[in-house]
Amino acid sequence: MSSLRHVQRCLANAQAHHGLNAFISLADRSFLEAAAQKVDSIREPGGPLNGKLIAVKDNICTSDFPTTAASYILKNFNSSYDATVVRRLRESGAIITGKTNLDEFGMGSHSTFSHFGSVKNPHNHHAQQPPSAGGSSGGSAVAVATSQCWASLGTDTGGSVRLPAAYTGTIGFKPSYGLLSRHGVLAYANSLDTVGILARTVSTTRSVFAALNAHDPKDPTSLPPSTRSRIAATTTTTASSSSSAQSPRSLRIGIPTHYNPTELSPSIRTTWHATLARLHALGHTLHAVSLPSTPAALAAYYVLAPAEASSNLAKYDGVRYGTRAAGPDARGGAPGAEGQRGAEAEVLYARTRGEGFGPEVKRRIVLGAYGLSKGARGNYFLQAQRVRRRVQEEFDTVFRVGNPLRMGVGPGELHGGLQTAGQGKDGREGEGVDVLVCPTAPGLPPALDTLRERNPVDAYTNDVFTVPASLVGLPAVSVPVPNADNSSAEGEAFPFVGMQIIGQFGSDDLVLDVAQALEEQIVNDRA
Amino acid sequence: MQSTTKLLHDSSETHRAVFICHSCLRTSAVRRNVRRSFFNSAIAREEHIAPPELGATVPFRKLLKDELKRQKLRGESKKSKHAPANRLLEKWELTVGIEIHVELNTAKKLFSTAATSTNQPPNTHVAHFDAAIPGTQPQFQKETLIPALRAALALNCTIHRKSAFDRKHYFYQDQPAGYQITQYYEPFATSGSVVLYPHDGIAELDHPSITIPIKQVQMEQDTAKTLHQPPSTHLLDFNRVSHPLVEIITEPVIHHPATAAACVRKIQSLLRAVDACTLGMELGGLRADVNVSVRPRPQLGQEIALGQRTEIKNLSSFKAVEGAIIAERDRQIEVLEAGGSIDGETRGWTLGGTQTTMLRGKEGEVDYRYMPDPDIPPLLIGNDLLHHLQMTMLNLPDDLVMSKLASTPYGLSVLDAIVLVATEDGDRLEYYMELVTQLQGLLSAEEFTKARAGKLAGNWVLHELGSLLATSDISWHDQPVKETHLASILVRLIRREITSKTSKQLLAMIFNGDPRPVEKIIEDENLSLRPMSKEEYLSLAQNLIAENGDMVRAITEKNQKGKIMWFVGQMMRQGEEGRMEADKAKKVLEELMEL
């Protein structure tokens, strides 16, 4: 297909699905068509991204569109530079179609906390009430699900790529932390923030991943070449240890027994079991694994992510950029000098930040600031750091491969890492597992109008399956699997369930291999 | 930039040549009337402690530290009987801790490749990250570590192999990110010290020296410059944002305002000497915050917790440090005397003012919500870098004086050098160096070397003149023996024109007010040495040996060699005034007793 035709189809879809509110900024038709024609005019075959439309979540900087993070405070902000991931997309020949809607600064699970209005899910199983598209990368997921673009970039801090993928029936891939550059990504919680990819097929996901996966000296957390080659060595070791020449070889699939909360919906449970059965049929073996810190991981996440958010969002004061409240917004002389004319008048930036941030962002800033405060830090922030470390150690005990970040460079140590990996403390015999398979979310997408009745803590529990991989920086992908639940009304209404594949740090290719095998089997089933 | 670099270079050249801060010397022009027993103790010490040779192996500061430790062990009080005039100061004791922010001498900012600058047009040296542009991340500039490490080494700190950066949160217009990147949980250097001497300008009550422990040294970012344009406009210049700083935090151990000022001054001079910083306080290169508290003065053996402290921020001169502390001390004492209590608040001080003013009350206290910066990996400092810096570091001012005094023409022992440096605001050192210069002019090079005149002069300044001072009511600054007097005496002694005894006699005469020139006294009193002949020595010695058979037997049979000095003493007493030389007498005696 020519690029022009691809662009025109996407634009037609964009027009048809305008009401889903997937985009905050969309490029002009004429601009996109001209760009496509230019690609088509060059006879040389480009790479897989050449001439393709890719949408970018609006918390990733672009020099040609505003970058709003769906916030009032940045509604008119124009970045002077492209994020490294955007630059790499352009260098691969991709055309940026526009900026997608999201939860403000990435904080939310349903893409409803946006200054530009909620994103709506195209799969409407609730009849009159549109379901949640998931968040925070809901716009990117919907744009892909409705073919308004070829692929899109999202960001995943605690599940923000995987959850909307699960809710919209798309592939949502969160690579290992540090593989894709965050330079130009507006920080929410930088120790967790990861650029992710949404696409309709695993092979598209792979192509985009390959274009972006490189060291970036502008991001101090970008893995340097030395670590990347160590990861490569680890995965090579795994591959050679497998005698099978087939692709995919027989893998050991882990089933986290603690990922089975009471609130798991019947559709999800049934589809999970069906998915495991499919994998077993493909020749993989299934193994129960124990990750007992899972509930604590969710709590730790909701201490750490808001703490970092309260820090990262302190820069939005309206002084150098962004929307600023009218009138003076500074301390009014010495405290008490103005009498009791309202405490707000005496707090610097209180008006700008009060007007500029939405309710969820404010809630998380307050939560995070509390967790870091003098009296609470020990019980909250520092305790959460310890939980995070424990979660990592638990993951390391279940995987066959050692964590390359926790191994020395020397081959001896590498060997040692391999030997200790997989020795579960439950006394499990033999090797560890290659990947974990579990649901992406505990339930099907809720109707948007029921969300308002939920309290924030209920909303946060929705992230229980996605947060552990985020805390440890593991690669994880959500794959849509046909809903296997034929018994309940819910099951009949919604066509698919997101299943998550999680791998050891650096096993990004393996995770995508399993996703692809699953995807192929589903396609074969349909045929 | 060119001219700036040059200027800074010149100033460091000048500094290298100076061995004692000139302003110290100037302030010492105000003569003080203090007496101490430091000389006696210094002399007494020599009997117990063999002075270590000043070799390349033992750094001066370590020797000094050891010496001060010994001094402390002996329980020598640093306090003189000199009581403060003010009754209230007798009742209340001041305690001060200091935090000093120093702009490091670096080409780039701490976390961006933007150039550092001092007098460039506003907002011309600002990287995206410095202005907290969304999506940007810190890029630690490792070169900034070099002056930071030099500073920490100059302050005798323990350097930690691993340290980390944290965010300190507060909103202010000069702080674009809403936080400052600093080192809170794991600073790169801790447990240092700086030693202050009279020539540093410390309070008399802290003489002869005081060691100020340095709690920690941390790297951090500077803030923007704010230009307030009344009534409500603040202009911001981000050139200074993220200029690398070190913050130096002392323990709260300082009890005198002058010593606090001296501490800041000394730290400035140390850091300039090792090229860690370029601009002085007067140009904004250093800023100090002081924590001030008062408590009832503890009696011997009594322990009283420090009082509630207040913080006085942003002091930009040594004078301001001293002035602000005095004013705040007096304010706190006044409040406490009136039965009030001190609130933990932040206060300000304007130079020329008489009172500190409240900036922020306790209720306005900021919780900085320290958080490790997730974007910055831990800082690892290799031993190879540390070694290299230690090897290539410029000499510190005190080290320079010491190594100079240990080498030709001076050739002093470490202990003598310490005493010279540590007393009389450096005046005695200057006196000594002038004396040596004069001796070099009066003696031939050969005479000077053979007599080890530098060391001899040191003995005379410290011990001969020192013991006269110690047993009289005359202070150093009032004593009448000038360098020319002493040079004149020593030249004659070296040339054996007078005996050792005569030379001491001459010194005592001039010390006690004899106004005549040395040569006139010698002439008038007939003190010139007219050497006795060998026969005269022999005849005196033979008589003494014949009269004291028991003593001779004790020496020759019981091997009590020390008793020979009794004979020498007898010969000196019996011999003609000013003609008998002890060493010759001893030699003759030994010959006769066949020793």
TrEMBL record, chain A:
Which sites are catalytic?
57 (charge relay system), 136 (charge relay system), 160 (acyl-ester intermediate)
The subcellular location is: Mitochondrion
Gene3D superfamilies, per database record: Amidase signature (AS) domain
List the catalysed reactions.
L-glutamyl-tRNA(Gln) + L-glutamine + ATP + H2O = L-glutaminyl-tRNA(Gln) + L-glutamate + ADP + phosphate + H(+)
Q: Where is the composition biased (Low complexity)?
A: 226-252
Q: Where is the signal peptide?
A: none
Q: What is this protein called?
A: Glutamyl-tRNA(Gln) amidotransferase subunit A, mitochondrial
UniProtKB/TrEMBL annotation, chain B:
- EC annotation from Swiss-Prot or TrEMBL: 6.3.5.-
SMART domains attached to this UniProt entry: GatB_Yqey
- According to the UniProt record, what class of enzyme is this? ligase
What GO biological process term is on the record, naming one? glutaminyl-tRNAGln biosynthesis via transamidation
The keyword NAD belongs to this UniProt entry's keyword annotation: no
Catalytic activity of the protein: L-glutamyl-tRNA(Gln) + L-glutamine + ATP + H2O = L-glutaminyl-tRNA(Gln) + L-glutamate + ADP + phosphate + H(+)
Q: What is its main location?
A: mitochondrion
Which one of the record's GO molecular function terms can you name?
Answer: glutaminyl-tRNA synthase (glutamine-hydrolyzing) activity
Stated role: Allows the formation of correctly charged Gln-tRNA(Gln) through the transamidation of misacylated Glu-tRNA(Gln) in the mitochondria. The reaction takes place in the presence of glutamine and ATP through an activated gamma-phospho-Glu-tRNA(Gln).
Name used for this protein in its record: Glutamyl-tRNA(Gln) amidotransferase subunit B, mitochondrial
What organism is this sequence from?
Viridothelium virens
